[in-house]
Amino acid sequence: MRLDKYLKISRLVKRRTIAKEIADQGRIEINQKVAKSSANVGTGDLITIHFGNKILTVKVLKLAELVKKDEASDLYEVISESYERDFSQE
């Protein structure tokens, strides 16, 4: 499954176009390698997403074409969630 589609279906990113933009800016990694929006995602992959100063790492548990909102979090497991400190405002 394409990375941008997986991010949208799993509700990690609200819209597929936003997922594509983030990926094409080099802010998403699959298994510690920068990934484009068209990269394939498989079960067991680690996806790291850089949202501004937030870094989220998830493990892909399963793939699905359609998922209800309540079940979207079953597609992945959060491995880590951290925040980078902004030194520019000190």
Automatic annotation (TrEMBL):
GO terms for molecular function: ribosomal large subunit binding; rRNA binding; tRNA binding. Residues 1-64 form the RNA-binding S4 domain. InterPro entries: RqcP (IPR025490), S4_RNA-bd (IPR002942), S4_RNA-bd_sf (IPR036986). The keyword Transferase does not apply. Keywords: Protein biosynthesis, RNA-binding, rRNA-binding, Stress response, tRNA-binding. GO terms for biological process: rescue of stalled ribosome. The keyword RNA-binding applies. Associates with stalled 50S ribosomal subunits. Binds to RqcH, 23S rRNA and the P-site tRNA. Does not require RqcH for association with 50S subunits. Belongs to the RqcP family. HAMAP family: RqcP. Key component of the ribosome quality control system (RQC), a ribosome-associated complex that mediates the extraction of incompletely synthesized nascent chains from stalled ribosomes and their subsequent degradation. RqcH recruits Ala-charged tRNA, and with RqcP directs the elongation of stalled nascent chains on 50S ribosomal subunits, leading to non-templated C-terminal alanine extensions (Ala tail). The Ala tail promotes nascent chain degradation. RqcP is associated with the translocation-like movement of the peptidyl-tRNA from the A-site into the P-site. This is RQC P-site tRNA stabilizing factor.
